[in-house]
Amino acid sequence: MSVLSALKPIHLRSPRSSPGGQRRHTLPASEFRCLSPEDAISVFEIEREAFISVSGDCPLHLDEIRHFLNLCPELSLGWFEQGRLVAFIIGSLWDQDRLSQEALTLHKPRGTVVHIHVLAVHRTFRQQGKGSILMWRYLQYLRCLPFARRALLMCEDFLVPFYQKCGFEVLGPCEVTVGELAFIEMQHPVRGHAFMRRNSGC
C-alpha cells in the first residue's frame, strides 16, 4: 500500500439531491486530503494572515511550502469545505531526537520523526474547533505510516496549552530561534504500523 493511498478523501456529507431525485454534481461538503504543490498559494494566503499579525513572520514562505509539497506531500493534510481550503498542516521527516535550525528547511527521507512545521486555520473558520479536529486526524493518519515514530513541533508559549490538549508533551526550550522569537519544543508518540493495521483498518 502506498503512503498516499493510506489517506483517502473523506466526505462528511453526501452531495444534495435535486428536487427530482437526481444527484447534483457538487463538490463534497467536507473533505480531508494530502496537499499538492497546486495548493501552495491557498496555503500561503491562510498562513500569512494567521501568523504575520501575531509574530510578524510565517513559519514557511511560499517557496518553502512548494518545496515540502513537492518533496513530501504525504506528510501534509488539508481540510476542504466545498472545495475551498479552510485549514491545513504541513510536515516533513527529521532524523534527530530534537529539532535544530536545519529542521526548518530540510526533509530527511530516512527519518522517523515527523516535524510539524505549521498548522493554520482560515480566519473565518477559527474558534470552531477545526484546529483540534485537524490535528487529531493528522495524528491518526501518521499512525498508519510505517516509518513514523514520533511527531515534533515547536511553538510559542501561548500555544502550549492548545497542543497539550491535542496530546503533545513539553520537551523544553527549542534550540531553534527565528529572529527574536524563542519556542517551546513538544512531542507526541506515534504507534507502530502493525498495531494500527490491526486496530484501525490502516
From TrEMBL:
CDD domains: NAT_SF. InterPro entries: Acyl_CoA_acyltransferase (IPR016181), GNAT_dom (IPR000182), SNAT-like (IPR051635). PROSITE patterns: GNAT. It catalyses: a 2-arylethylamine + acetyl-CoA = an N-acetyl-2-arylethylamine + CoA + H(+). Keywords: Acyltransferase, Biological rhythms, Cytoplasm, Melatonin biosynthesis, Phosphoprotein, Transferase. Pathway: Aromatic compound metabolism; melatonin biosynthesis; melatonin from serotonin: step 1/2. Belongs to the acetyltransferase family. AANAT subfamily. The keyword Transmembrane does not apply. This is Serotonin N-acetyltransferase. Its EC number is 2.3.1.87. GO terms for molecular function: aralkylamine N-acetyltransferase activity. One of its GO terms (biological process) is response to light stimulus. One of its GO terms (cellular component) is cytoplasm. It is found in: Cytoplasm. Pfam families: Acetyltransf_1. It comes from Podargus strigoides (Tawny frogmouth). Residues 30-191 form the N-acetyltransferase domain. The keyword Acyltransferase applies.
